[in-house]
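TASK: fixed-backbone design
INPUT:
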């Protein structure tokens, strides 16, 4: 079942969308503003996002741009929803990375058709992106496998998710706090040294197949996956 996040401040429209999509065999989580949406996004990644433009505090265009800047979320398809019919708004949304645009009022059947069409396009585009290959390390997200030098590296669930997160954000420094929120969840109450211990274990397991250390410690900042080894 595909998971859809609907960010819409109008409770009536949000409930209508949720009910209609549930009937169409989608799982829907609704949000009336950006904060609750961002918090849930750190816990669970949706298959597609329905995003209203006119939102309180942080508008939909800003949210869209933030999503497309983050390597962890930029591939999530986004359909913009708005009451505006001005062409300039559609152009701005599409140029910022939106996959489609639907204007209120809209029919439920049209919305469902657009969602299915965007999901089909997304599946075609990302069919090969579920496999990440960097520095000879092959990570197959769907099969939950990591291969190096033709050897499978056995990782726990959290180790696998952590390595995937680092590889998805190659070259970017990720703080321990950001890693905790992404991998362990927003409400996790453990200490940041949990991240250090998992990084240490991943390094040890990769070292077991003579893999160079591509996971770099950035002092007072966090960690990053670097494809250029220090000479």
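OUTPUT:
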């Amino acid at each position: 079942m595909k998971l859809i996040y609907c960010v819409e401040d109008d409770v009536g429209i949000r409930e209508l969308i949720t009910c209609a999509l549930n009937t169409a065999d989608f799982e829907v989580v609704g949000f009336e503003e950006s904060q609750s949406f961002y918090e849930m996004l750190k816990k669970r990644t949706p298959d597609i996002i329905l995003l209203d433009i006119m939102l309180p505090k942080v508008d939909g265009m800003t949210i869209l741009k933030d999503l497309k800047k983050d390597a962890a979320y930029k591939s999530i398809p986004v359909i913009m929803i708005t009451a505006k019919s001005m062409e300039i708004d559609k152009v701005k949304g599409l140029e910022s990375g939106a996959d489609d645009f639907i204007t209120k009022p809209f029919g439920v059947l049209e919305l469902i058709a657009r969602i299915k069409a965007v999901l089909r396009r997304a599946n075609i585009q990302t069919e090969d992106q579920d496999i990440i290959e960097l520095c000879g390390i092959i990570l197959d997200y769907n099969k939950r496998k990591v291969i190096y030098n033709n050897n499978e590296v056995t990782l726990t669930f959290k180790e696998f998710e952590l390595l995937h997160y680092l590889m998805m954000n190659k070259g970017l420094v990720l703080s321990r706090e950001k890693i905790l929120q992404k991998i362990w969840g927003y409400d996790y109450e453990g200490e940041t040294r949990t991240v250090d211990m998992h990084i240490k274990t991943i390094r040890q397991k990769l070292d077991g197949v003579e893999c160079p250390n591509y996971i770099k410690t950035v002092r007072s900042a966090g960690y990053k996956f670097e494809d250029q080894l220090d000479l």
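COMMENT: The helical segments are 11-23, 34-43, 60-69, 87-95, 108-125, 157-168, 176-184, 193-207.
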